[in-house]
Specification:
Blueprint (H helix, E strand, L loop, with lengths): L1 H9 L3 E5 L5 E10 L2 E6 L2 E6 L5 E4 L1
Antiparallel strand pairs: 1-2, 1-5, 2-3, 3-4
Length: 59
């Protein structure tokens, strides 16, 4: 359910992702498949397990 929401509303958009603790992941949504969100920032990819996401918002 979350995967389809991300693809529908945020694909190719710059977002911030909060998974708890002090860290917030930032980047452009490049893919969201197999319950993994892929963000690109400064030429590097970050892969986040969708079930660990607490909140996300546009930059």
């Amino acid at each position: 359910m979350m995967q389809s929401f991300i693809v529908e509303h945020y694909l190719e958009s710059a977002i911030d992702v909060y998974c708890g603790g002090p860290d917030i992941f930032r980047g452009t949504v490049k893919a969201c498949a197999d319950n993994v969100l892929t963000l690109e920032s400064e030429g590097k990819l970050t892969h986040i397990a969708i079930d660990k996401i607490i909140a996300l918002w546009p930059q």
